[in-house]
Design a protein that fits this description.
This protein is an alpha+beta fold. The protein has three domains: about 10-140; about 155-195, no CATH class; about 210-410, 2-Layer Sandwich (D-amino Acid Aminotransferase, Chain A, domain 1), CATH 3.30.470. It is built from twelve helices and 23 strands. The protein has a five-stranded antiparallel sheet with strand order 17-16-18-19-20. It has a four-stranded antiparallel sheet with strand order 21-15-22-23. Helix 5 (about 170-175) crosses helix 6 (about 175-185). It is globular. The chain starts with 10 loop residues before the first strand and ends with a helix. The model has no long low-confidence stretch (mean pLDDT about 90).
Amino acid sequence: MLNKEGIRELCYVVTIDDIKPIAGKDRVECAVVGGWTVMVRKDQFKPGDPAIYFEIDSKVPETKPFEFLAQKKYKIKTQRYATPEGPFFSQGLLMSAEDFDWGKIFNPDGYIGIVENGKTHFVNDESRFLTAALGVTYAEASDNQRKAAAADKYKKMAQRHGKLFSHQPFRWLMKRTWGKKLLFIFFGKKKDKKSSWPYWVTKTDEERVQNMPWILNDKGYWIATEKIDGSSTTFTIKRKPFGKYEFYVCSRNVCFDKPDKKCYYETNIYTEMADLYAIEGKMKHMLFMEDSFADCEWITIQGETYGVGVQKRDYSLEDEDHEFAAFNLIDSKRGRWNSVDMVIYLEERNISCVPIVDTHYVLPDTVEELLAYATGDSAIDGKMREGLVFRSPDATRSFKAVSNEYLAKYHG
């Protein structure tokens, strides 16, 4: 689940939505949380109970409450079980407050929560997140490095003046671009600018449909594109006075504003893609010479770099080959482009994009149906695809559906 900063949380307080039997299983049953299904001990939970949910791809600390996970190296992955009615996927871990000697709260106003050492974590509140409190990390050590939260120059400034910036006037200003710029004049330092994240760039991450099953009630049409198992890559250009500009290449959290800045991978696949597709020259031409971007302050292209050694799938590329596929085109005037318009525009300029699977898809009634639809063959090499990303035609809303079969095969 994403928090209000758009950063993925791996552990949080939830409410058990439903309990269902699992065909052929007598000692366990299925607990439903949002769109997630988790195998639990029989009678461990009942609908309405608060619980602590640990997402797939997470790793818990090697401490007493988690000793039962020692054989799994304390990692939580998608697990596939055969049943008489077909495969059952258990995704995540559910633990009760009692497992940690904590208390539970059932509030008459509808809030349900857990009390930990005097601190209350409500289901419907930002305080529900327990990732940091319990020391939960990504299961793959590489993800902890690649996906670590990064601070832009304004966050660095606020962190340095934590007490002052906690007051309401400063919080109000920090929510506005002009306000952050104003504060930086008085409180910013040159060291804050160094290697900082471009403030106008929104980091890439989509919420999983299991965390927002209510979206299925929207029966308008959606644009479905293939989700590629790669590494998030951002190119952005910003106009400066007198015909000058700033151009940045970024991973999910690192801005490569210096050519020699260390990359997680042995070679810098991000700058490699910028060179392979001649991105800087093309974006400079877009910003200064094309009518589509007249009067725009900045343009951003975001996508996935994929291939050998990037993730679990090499997409049938050979040797050390890598390729890039764009999934976002954003500018300061128009905002995020419609996916179809983006593909047409960028591919005319020889910048490849994610494959479009459907331009008028109507969402089904259940998460299970959508996950089944997400399972299929990749348009890139004909082998299993990771899943799908769905965007509204006006590009203001989006979410992802990752194939359970893919997770079980490559990340289980």
